[in-house]
Please model this.
Amino acid sequence: ETLQRVGAFKFRGAFNRLVQLSPDERRRGVVAFSSGNHAQGVALAARLLGMPALIVMPSDAPKVKVEATRSYGAEIRLYDRLTESREAIAAQIASERGATVVPAFDDVDVIAGQGTVGLELCSQARDLGARLDLVIAPLGGGGLMAGTSIAVRDRSPDALLVGVEPEAFDDTAQSLAKGERVVTKPATRSLCDSLESPAPGEITFPILQRHLAGVATVSDPEVAEALRYAFSTLKLVVEPGGSVGLAALLAGRIAEARPGATVGLVLSGGNVDPDQFAAILRREI
Model:
């Protein structure tokens, strides 16, 4: 998905949500909140469909993502993630403008759009004459894995599905272990800014409960190593959050990845901050 429109899978769900809007809803526009990739997906989808978009973004979001979102024509409202609620800000703006709020993951149309990743993955495997044994994808709020898991269960029902989270943001792993949604309050940040969700979604979590074989976690050093591997070996630029599946696979964190297994691995985005990426390649991070 590093080669997807806006450089991330998020365009799929954003476009699928926006294309459902009525002419009157399109005229009034959309509001979204995101640290970057969903922001860009909504901004581009809105431009393609001819509607205004306002994106609520944290003031410490990667500069490359803020600039890209603005370049697609969206209005941006910055907020302090430590003192302000992005949900409250978006709700107020939507109320004032009569705009539609487009969630990053907890929405059936967004989940369905992200699920096209799974459809394409199964189609590509079929074209290669391969039988998928395992599918690995990043986990934040769960939209990508929820949609992908539905598609894979339909097209390759014997394949196991494993999600991967940053170890400091293992809310889905904790939620699955407890059998209910757990809201975490991490005391630290992660290289994976796109995966810092405190809890799986209300809609996504039951889907993940039904479909996931397990959840693996990875450390920041393992993520950095995956970025270097993707760059030097795969010749791909991958952002930290987009590389967690690869990081888990390389670090041996996924027990289901047995020798001889056919693995489908999602690299979910490539919008990495240039300075951060250079530092990772120089092994300064």
